[in-house]
Design goal:
By secondary structure, the chain is an alpha/beta fold. It has helices at residues 2-10, 48-63, 72-79, 93-111, 115-131, 158-168, 181-190, 196-207, 217-221, 236-250, 259-271, 328-353; strands at 36-41, 66-71, 133-135, 141-143, 148-153, 172-178, 226-229, 282-286, 292-297. A hairpin with a 5-residue loop joins strand 3 and strand 4 (141-143).
């Protein structure tokens, strides 16, 4: 969200005297590269593949970009043998999804949590090597100026996002695709023929697994640069949202934040003030017309009202600055854990002594 607002506020309209053949074509002289990398993230059934199809069409037809597609689930199938996984054979739709999720988890465990994203990075590098260089008159290789965009569908783990941001820097954008659970359930049963008995497990596993190497869409989604809602029966609204996103990153025409975006940015900025050692949460209350009424965050309440800030100095009694600098909630939970453990140990010992 912060990257989106920064892009919106940085847009400058082109001089009226500039000759522009197609207003949709971005001003490349104002950009570091003609190449972009876009990744998609969304809960299963939200429509990441549909989002790609729209992006591919708009980028090709309106912006004259060559679009390359990298589907991370394909790398699960290709690499299954590395973890003795088998996704072939006659499997039901639910069994295939479950098998793909299991093999994906094993690949992240054995090869690293960012393995699938690393495969996409590898494929992009291979494409650059084979298509990105020409020959000079002297015979030496020279880089070509390729007008291309790489779209990665779809990432499931924070380490995958971390790798992509570190690799591509400012040419990388993450789009979060959202649809309500009821809509996603309907799509999965109708379009992918999943039985309703399997839906709960599949959707929960996709959203957040407890295993460090499992799927954690929840932990990736909120870090997206732009969010689109895909809950309609047709694609009109999704097409409109994605077209606006592309116009924003290319700087043509001028766009300013919507009321929802401004409100979310206010909440994001408020969350940055929190010094909670567990998580930082911000909230903004706005009127129906978008007027900001108030903001708040999770933090230690201050004596006589309000919350602590950086300006409190030596009087700052938040966890990060007070006594042993540990989260008060974590300390209290540790005490409770010890009490529970001691009582269980006592009960087990009594049962053992009585031969039960």
């Amino acid at each position: 969200m912060s990257a989106l607002v920064a892009a919106l506020t940085a847009i400058v309209a082109p001089p009226q005297s500039a000759a522009v053949e197609n207003p949709k074509i971005p001003r490349l002289k104002d950009r570091l590269t003609e190449e972009l990398v876009i990744a998609l993230v969304g809960p299963v059934g939200s429509g990441c593949s549909t989002t790609y199809e729209i992006l591919q069409s708009v980028l090709k037809n309106e912006y004259s970009y060559l679009v390359h597609y990298y589907k991370l689930s394909d790398y699960i199938s290709e690499s299954a043998k590395l973890v003795d996984g088998d996704i072939s054979g006659s499997l039901s739709a639910a069994e295939r999804v479950d098998r793909m999720q299991t093999v994906g988890d094993e690949l992240r465990k054995v090869c690293g949590s960012a393995y699938l994203a690393a495969k996409a990075v590898e494929k992009i590098a291979e494409r650059r090597d084979t298509e990105g260089f020409g020959k000079a008159a002297s015979g030496s290789a020279i880089p070509k100026k390729l007008r291309q965009i790489h779209i990665i569908d779809s990432i499931k783990h924070p380490e995958e996002l971390r790798l992509l941001r570190a690799t591509y820097g400012e040419i990388f954008w993450l789009i979060g695709v959202f649809a309500p659970q009821s809509v996603r359930e309907q799509r999965l049963t109708v379009q992918q023929s999943l039985d309703r008995a399997s839906l709960g497990t599949i959707m929960q596993r996709d959203y957040r697994e407890e295993d460090d190497h499992g799927q954690k869409v929840r932990d990736v989604f909120f870090q997206a640069d732009f969010f689109v809602r895909n809950d309609q029966e047709n694609k009109n609204q999704l097409e409109k949202s994605l077209s606006r996103f592309l116009e924003i990153i290319f700087g043509s025409p001028v766009h300013t934040p919507t009321l929802d975006e401004s409100s979310m940015y206010a909440a994001y900025a408020e969350a940055a003030k929190s010094a909670c050692l567990s998580r930082q949460v911000g909230a903004a209350i706005v009127s129906p017309s978008g007027e900001l009424i108030g903001v708040g965050r999770n933090d230690v309440p201050r004596y006589r009202g309000g919350l602590y800030t950086e300006d409190a100095g030596d009087g700052d009694h938040r966890c990060h600055a007070w006594q042993d600098k540990r989260c008060h909630n974590d300390k209290r939970k540790d005490v409770l854990y010890q009490q529970i453990f001691s009582r269980l140990k006592s009960v087990i010992c009594q049962d053992s002594c009585h031969g039960t």
